[in-house]
Write a structure and sequence with these properties.
This protein is mainly beta and 248 residues long. It is built from no helices and 20 strands. The strands form 4 sheets. Strands 13, 14, 15, 16, 17, 18, 19 and 20 form an 8-stranded mixed β-sheet that branches. Strands 3, 5, 6, 8, 10 and 12 form a 6-stranded mixed β-sheet that branches.
């Protein structure tokens, strides 16, 4: 059966807990971020992200901004950039409190293509207390920021192709020739007679404009290179509604 990809919750609640041999306890903060994606354009040049500290400890967060592209079919390439600005760049959030963070872009948007960036929120671990034998676990979150052209409609144009890996799996590659990203939340591949071949019901991958993403699908039965139909759920359709992607 396919490995189930955990979909991000709307509030992006993240709690990292770990256990290690020879340590008595592990300490971790807990915080929410809302929204989990930021959309800007030539008219709306800034947006707000709210960080909520759910823990009983003071939370220190350091931010950074990276341009975001993809290569090799799936790898995200993040490069520090000054195209956007974050305020405040480093801040403390008191226990059970919230902090508003503003993100603004300084560069003129592309005339036709959606721009993609990542806002990194990195927890700064607090100083160790005397006698503390535990291990502190720092949280790092990465939020997408999309900048759309002004007055131009952008959309993803997705196609797929498949190649066998072995008798029980195949590699499915999605290519986006459009001008905007698409977020794929689920994939279902069936034979033309409707027989199920492979499925990942819950996941979250982005395919940026002009980029591609490959994923290996484990099959329910051997695939003999028969014709396929590929359905996805995505952020381009209402939740739970499948759309069919055409082959290349």
């Amino acid at each position: 059966m396919n490995k189930i990809y955990r979909q991000y919750q709307l509030a992006a609640k993240v709690v990292f807990l770990a256990a290690f041999f020879f340590t008595s306890n592990v300490q971790s903060s807990e915080f929410n971020v809302n929204p989990v994606r930021v959309y800007l354009d030539g008219r709306v040049r800034s947006g707000t992200v709210v960080v909520e500290n759910k823990s009983d400890e003071i939370l220190t967060i350091q931010t950074s901004i990276n341009s975001w592209s993809q290569e090799n079919g799936k790898e995200d390439l993040l490069v520090p950039t000054e195209d956007l600005i974050v305020s405040p760049p480093i801040f403390k959030v008191q226990p059970k409190s919230r902090q508003m963070v503003r993100v603004g872009h300084l560069k003129k948007p592309d005339a036709n293509l959606e721009g993609a960036y990542r806002l990194i929120l990195q927890e700064v671990p607090p100083p160790r207390k005397p006698g503390d034998t535990g291990m502190a676990v720092a949280i790092r979150m990465s939020l997408p920021i999309f900048i759309t052209p002004t007055g131009v409609k952008t959309q993803a144009v997705l196609k797929w192709n498949a190649e066998a890996v072995d008798t029980k799996s195949f590699r499915l590659t999605f290519s986006n020739s459009g001008t905007a990203h698409i977020q794929i939340n689920g994939i279902r591949a069936v034979l033309t007679d409707g027989t199920s071949l492979a499925e990942i019901p819950s996941m979250m991958i982005y395919v940026l404009p002009g980029q591609s993403h490959s994923i290996v699908m484990k099959t329910d039965k051997p695939w003999k290179r028969e014709s396929l139909r590929v359905m996805i759920t995505s952020d381009s359709s209402p939740p739970g509604v499948e759309t069919e992607v055409k082959p290349e």
